[in-house]
Amino acid sequence: MLFDWGFVLEILPTLAQAAVITIEATVVSFVLALVLGLVFALARMSARPYVSLPVGAFVEFIRSTPVLIQIFFLYFVFPQFGVVIPALVAGVMALGLHYSTYCSEVYRAGLENVPRGQWEAATALNLGPMATYRDIILPQAIPPMVPALGNYLVGLFKETPLLSAIAVLELMQTAKIIGSETFRYLEPITLVGVFFLVMSLASAALIRRVEAWLRHRRD
Amino acid sequence: MNIQQGTVIFLLSFTAGLAVASFAGFRDFIPGLLEGAWVTIQITVMAAGVAVAAAMVAGLARLSSIKPIRWIATVYVEIFRGTSALVQLFWLYFVLPHFGISLSATTVAVLGLGLNVGAYGSEVVRSCIQAVPKGQYEAAIALNMSRSLMMRRIIIPQAVVAMLPPWGNLFIELLKATALVSLITITDLTFRAYQLNQVTLRTVEIFTLVLIVYLALSLLITIGMRALERRFGADLGRIR
Fold first, then answer.
1. What's the CATH code, domain B3-239?
2. What is the ipTM, given to two decimal places?
3. CB contact under 8 A, A73 and B207
4. Which of A111, A147, B29, B116 is the most buried (most CB within 10 A)?
5. Rounded to two decimals, what is the model's pTM?
6. Average pLDDT, stretch A90-104?
7. Which of A1, A60, A68 lies nearest to residue B1, judging by beta carbons?
8. Domain assignments of chain A as residue spans, ordered by start
């Protein structure tokens, strides 16, 4: 069976629309992951054990279990409490939650890698906590985090096809529907694969350039 | 996650899970979930075998001095790392029959996940082989070893010790990825949970229980890999 380019042209607009949903889901989930990750990281680094221990346990729990089940969990659990949310929202929440645990580890490593002397110097200079973070710690902690966070963004992007399991009309689900309507799976699924491949390679190149730029700026 | 921490988390969540699931009907879930867990374990183990083999071949191929071999390995690694695991599974399951190759769902699961994790693993293999100190290569050449003998007796044993911790993480990623095979009709743990949920609508109990089983399995992998690390580390110590 040959690759039918006419069919490709026919389904391309539909797939392009679905790709927009995929990208939207990625962006919203990642923003959620970044914010939630920061909360987890700060809570885990807290000096109070009744804060840091449960949060640490929760983060490890989410990190070592499959995201697909977490998606199912959130998707099915809300209606049982009488809250009806669209599948896309439940999926985005689950992906964001899962990746926030990865992000929190990145934040933690980044903050802990700032030498102790920097904190002590800030204290010696009588800087408040706000000024210490804004002017001393974060400018040193953020650059090494960028490539790691970038890799997780690509990872998250590649996990969005899981949303097809709860019938979100993103790229994979659309390709499957086209496949089941026309009995041609070759073109839609191959196109989805090519789309992810191109996007991943492009973002990997972008991350390398950002990394180089950050290194250049620091030197 | 280290072992003590993991055990504590496991015990805590297990008690929490028991508390949640101690309502009536808990016992009815167990047999189905156990069967599913067994399928998950089988697929994880078989796919891990494929992954290690693929990673070894691709990792060594990327270090080859013959260009075409390097190119083929690079294309494999980029394709499997650059696309989603789910897209790969669907491609193998739905598209490959168009080319006259029909694989069973289990074969697709083992091959697909194995090749996916193998692509990530090949980078581990490559970097760990490259990380063996140059002096080791020079000493092997000075002792007039052939290239294959040098790889087999000197380089790879040292590289394997360095590979074990990242492989532990990859195996946990693999275990988590096996949940995807439920979407190509395999009755693994996730599939059973989904099915039970459809029938009983006891979402919190069922999915919490299943998440705890996955947690236990990943803890098992951590413990196993730690034991292997000690074992191989000790072997290497004796050679030195």
1. 1.10.3720.10
2. 0.88
3. yes
4. B116
5. 0.89
6. 96
7. A60
8. 5-218
Query: Does residue B158 surpass a pLDDT of 50?
Result: yes
Contacts of A14-19 with C-beta under 8 Å, sequence gap 24+, read: A14/A174, A14/A178, A15/A171, A15/A174, A15/A175, A15/A178, A15/A188, A15/A191, A15/A192, A15/A195, A17/A174, A18/A169, A18/A170, A18/A171, A18/A173, A18/A174, A18/A175, A19/A171, A19/A195
Count A/B contacts: CB-CB distance under 8 Å. 122
pLDDT at site B68:
96
pLDDT band at B89 (very low <50, low <70, confident <90, very high): very high
First to last CA, chain A: 56
Question: Is B170 a residue whose pLDDT tops 50?
Answer: yes
Those of residues 171-200 in B touching chain A at CB distance below 8 A are 172, 175-180, 182-183, 190, 193-194, 197
Count CB neighbours of A169 within 10 A. 17
Cβ pair B63, B127 in contact under 8 A: no
Position B240 scores a pLDDT of 46
Q: What is the pLDDT of residue B23?
A: 57
Q: Which CATH architecture has domain A5-218?
A: Orthogonal Bundle (1.10)
Q: Do A60 and B13 touch (CB under 8 A)?
A: no
- What integer pLDDT is reported at residue B60 of this predicted model? 94
Find all residues with CB under 8 Å of B152, minimum gap 6, and list them: none
The beta strands (E) that lie in B38-177 are given as none
| CB-based contact, B3 to chain A, within 8 Å | no
